[in-house]
Amino acid sequence: MSNATRSRLTIPQNGTVGNHEDRSVVSNDFSTTLGAVILGLVFLLGVPGNLFIVWSILARIKRRSVTTLLILNLACADGLLMVLTIFFIVYLTMQTWVFGDAMCKCLFYLCNANMYASIFLITLMSVHRMVAVVMPRSLSTLVSKKVVRRVIWCTWVLVMLIAIPSLVFRDVREDHDEKNRTRHVCAPNHTKPTHERFQYAFETVSGFILPYTVIITCYVLILRRLRQTKFRRTVRSEKLILAIVVMFGLFWLPYHVINMIQVAAQWYDPKSPIREKLDNITRPSRAVTSALAFISSCANPILYTFAGKSYIKKNGFAFMARLFEGTSLDQTGTKKTKETVGLSTLDSANDSGPLQNGRA
């Protein structure tokens, strides 16, 4: 790497982007330490938690409802992300990238794909809930398991496609800190301001703003429909799915706020005081906000545990499966009992059918 290229990584130049990005993740000792601690806790909680969910569904539930299929895919996506955190813990701890250029691209691509997969699957849960409440008679036609499986497959294909920018705009570069120590950073490689604006704006709009608009619309329709009917029971499934939505939003919001600040910074001249202030916000914040975003992937098992705590004493390790089995028993007009309260408010009998004796 030439001296000119090296100097560009540390000193802003007109028309050059990526200089502040290269040092945004590992240039601050406090943020990298805090980020590593958060990711360590996320790894310890998230890996066994999501594996337990996958095992509970695959090994103990033979007839799976639509909601259960979506939760299974969400747990697989989150579990994969939790496994990848070990690489980022090493990165933040050593403050240098040691895994090579190919791993740099692939790991960040998979993380970005997980973000899209998580929010899209949560959006599908909300849409399914809306259809079940607003159009219950059409549920078996519009939301059969066959249709849902196709939608899930299409969702994964879409996720892999729209995450490609994180694969293209990322590579390993040399960086020199204030003490002239050389290190490698896995950083964005935007060569034009338009590239940076496009990636982060596209990421926030498609991975946060648009899905949440759909989710909010679905819950407005659900609340409106419930107020129009005499059927106004409160089922723990509605609260649980709403908690998943809120939890995801809270942990990902800081990350997308930093994205927008970084996009806004690109509209100013590199020598502008405003640009410098904005860069000073994004530079130390990226590691922490990214680590917080990882928490959303380990929070769902905790939410499920609280939702199914009434089953723990009776069902032991099968409590999670018993909780998910409720998706096929809780139907429109079905009398609510302790044995039928599960994840879904209005999954129809055509979705997965009743289970015999609530077998786990």
Automatic annotation (TrEMBL):
Compartment list: Cell membrane
Annotated stretches, region: Disordered: 340-360
GO terms assigned for molecular function: complement receptor activity; leukotriene receptor activity
GO BP: any one term: phospholipase C-activating G protein-coupled receptor signaling pathway
Main localization category: membrane
Domain G-protein coupled receptors family 1 profile: 49-304
SUPFAM superfamilies in alphabetical order: Family A G protein-coupled receptor-like
InterPro entries, sorted: Formyl_rcpt-rel, GPCR_Rhodpsn, GPCR_Rhodpsn_7TM, Leukotriene_B4_rcpt
Lineage top rank: taxon: Eukaryota
UniProt similarity note: Belongs to the chemokine-like receptor (CMKLR) family.
Identification of the protein by name: Leukotriene B4 receptor 2b
Organism from which the protein derives: Gymnodraco acuticeps (Antarctic dragonfish)
Gene name per UniProt: ltb4r2b
